[in-house]
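Today's session is about reading a structure prediction critically. Students often jump straight to the picture, but the first step is always the sequence itself: look for stretches that repeat, for charged clusters, for runs of hydrophobic residues. Only then move on to the predicted structure, which in these notes is written as discrete structure tokens rather than atom positions. Here is the chain we will use throughout the hour.
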Amino acid sequence: MSKNNQILLEEIIKQERENIEESISIEKFFEFYSANQILKTYELSYDELELGLSGDSHDGGVDSIYLLVNGDIVKEDENIKEKYRKNVDVELVLIQSKYTNSFSEEPLLKLSRLSRNLFNLDFDRNDFIGRYNNKVLDAFELFRETYIALITKKPKLKISFYYASKGIEVHPNVKKQAEDLISDVKTLLTDASVEVTFVGAEQLIKLIQSRTNDVYRLKVSENPMSSSGQVFISLANLADYYKFITDENNNLMKHIFESNVRDYQGKTNVNNEIQETLEITGEEEFWWLNNGVTIIASEASAPGGKELVIHNPEVVNGLQTSSEIFKFYSSNPNNLVTEKRNILVRVIVPETEETRDKIIRATNSQTPIPKSSLRATDTIHRQIEDFMKPRGLFYDRRKNYYKNEGKKPKDIISVSFLAQCLMSVLTQQPDFARARPSTLLENDEAYNSLYHKNNDLNTYYLLAYIGRFVELILKEESPINSSEINDIKFYVLYAVCAQLASSIYPSNKQISILTKNEVRKDLINTTIEFVYDLYKTLGGTDKIAKSSKFTELLKEKLREKKL
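Below is the predicted structure for this chain, in token form.
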């Protein structure tokens, strides 16, 4: 095979590193970039990708590790038993990324040892402290807890190993080690599907060059009805709708499901009813018994009558229906040929962002969507986005919108990151921000306080700016490992803001009048030192970082500074 692919890949990596994350080594960037490409179909945000990186010392041969259930990344504070009810797909993805020109046996040998140790469901992490870093141990504990919690839901388990490099060919001895790795895992997890995939220069280039189509065609059963503006209502054959939501490999296209609501998992009885309607063909039409789906788009037309051309579609309502349709025809592909039933489809091109958000909220108002999933459609979040953008930060209230626009990771502020910054500083609870990263927006009282309409928009911008500044200094200039950075960064943010506001209880008003020039690097560095010392004194674990004890001790130390 030609070496041209290696030459092209090296140039791509060089240019992408300059565009995205020039401050880290080429080897570390390759870990991040290869994971991003391998997991492209899962639509992970930059923050989610970052959390999966485990390639510090003592990583056991795994540079990044991600746990997914039904294609969604699992957060450490989620209530798995409540969220997922039946017939779930559990996948653990482990990636080894080497910026070398070949594939070797040693990484696979390390992964075999790691697997024999940590795929034992009764492993004790204390036996492996010092041998494997906290990121790796945390990931395997989360996998164990998730898999065991879902065991009565008949989970389908898949363990996916990826070995990424600039390699061209895989030596037979390396392939043999991959077979041994699969055997080692299946000895412990007998019901699991286990795969080892080699991702070399040619495969990586194909992944990099693959582009998401932004124009889709949906065949409809009758000429669509249309009112004023670009609004279409029509019936579509279930088989045609299945083809609309799947790619050429018959995988569900997650990116066309509106990110604020797509992670919702319906109650068992709701999904069962949809599935029963699909399985049992009676006198009733499917669309008589189902509310159908709502799609918003940037442009839509019906040039040929019985076909809709939809630009940048987002399915904002009908996730349960779409998921069940996908599952049914994936299991019964022969039914695609004979299917006669229809689904009701509404396609709307909103004229403004405000209208778009209203459509999302209204079409989901009768469905028990978690509160946090719809928060980002509130007016305040649109105002925050508009305020931050001209100041160089991009509030990603529509998940991955700015990632897809090509903005740098350090300039993108996720909804959850901003919520953690606000909780850490304005309510002085960095412990809560660390312990509950994905559920901060569930509590009405806290939410209404943090996102009150009278709060100064400059407060949101400054806390996001300082939070990201703290994070970058921790990553780029401190010797602290990634697991510890994740534990202390919101404590550092709180302590920096307390010192800038001269109060251990910084308020919205006190933060809003600060300026960027007051946020000095030397202040952040000295704060990192004393926060990290406190953290290590208390034990230096994630358990400490999630405890109010750490917060109270930090407040005591700040009082000693006479704040």
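Discussion point for the tutorial: The CA atoms of residues 471 and 489 lie 6 Å apart.
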